Amino acid sequence: MTVIQTVDLTKRFGELKAVDTINLAVEKGEIYGFLGPNGAGKTTTIRMLTGTLKPTSGEVKILGIDMRSNEIEIKKRIGVVPDEPKIYPNLKGYEFINFIGDIYRLDKVKMNQRVEELCEAFSIDFLQKAVSDMSHGMKQKLYLVSVLMRKPEILFLDEPTVGLDARSAKILKMLLQKYTSDGSTVFMTTHVLEIAEKMCTRIGIIHKGKLIVEGTLSQLREYVKSSQASLEDVFLQLTTEGEDIASIVKEL
């Protein structure tokens, strides 16, 4: 079942075409890695897929539902973790969790049990703190809990491990694999290519707004005609346009 689908998805900002006629088809149960250099269009694409940014043209369907006519229904069923967690600074951690629970009308008993399990897993003991007093890593963990406690059908994650300690990042990776084995779907961006190589079912690489290639790691290796290439090798070959990185480093 295709749960994320785009047809000629395009976004312009003035003369800049940030996302250029992208066609995606992500299946249920996949961990889809969406990779690209800085400014390639990754975050803009995620914002269109999650309804926080309107496309200039093209179509988005999530869980078979058209984003243009059923945005609220889609948002009920997905979870989004941005690269920069934006949380009301004057709220305490537990107040933010309860606020999200109220918005989604979650069963309080089940929610509290789920939050307790997640807090133990991610070593969260700061729910009494004000958000303004939290580090970036603390905010990232808090935001993750606010999304994971709902068990959404699709998780959109923009650089989810940034700010997390090694233990929490490992737990998150294992949780995502568990969720997809239970039928959820993950669409994620990351600059940590080792994470994408180990976790992702399929990988798409976007460059200058265009989806230049997608497939399993084996298929990407076939595309660049190198059976032993790492994902990093593939990525650099496709996005650095023949740049000699070793020479650049040597001259520094």
From TrEMBL:
Domain of life the protein comes from: Bacteria
Family matches, as SMART domains: AAA (SM00382)
PROSITE patterns the UniProt entry points to: ABC_TRANSPORTER_2 (PS50893)
Keywords tagged on the record: ATP-binding, Nucleotide-binding, Transport
Molecular function terms, GO-annotated: ATP binding; ATP hydrolysis activity
Statement: the UniProt record of this protein carries the keyword Ribonucleoprotein: no
Domain ABC transporter positions: 4-233
Family matches, as Gene3D superfamilies: P-loop containing nucleotide triphosphate hydrolases
InterPro entries from the UniProt entry: AAA+_ATPase (IPR003593), ABC_transporter-like_ATP-bd (IPR003439), ABC_Transporter_VariousFunc (IPR051782), P-loop_NTPase (IPR027417)
Name listed for the protein in its UniProt record: ABC transporter related
Species annotation: Pseudothermotoga lettingae (strain ATCC BAA-301 / DSM 14385 / NBRC 107922 / TMO)
UniProt lineage: Bacteria, Thermotogati, Thermotogota, Thermotogae, Thermotogales
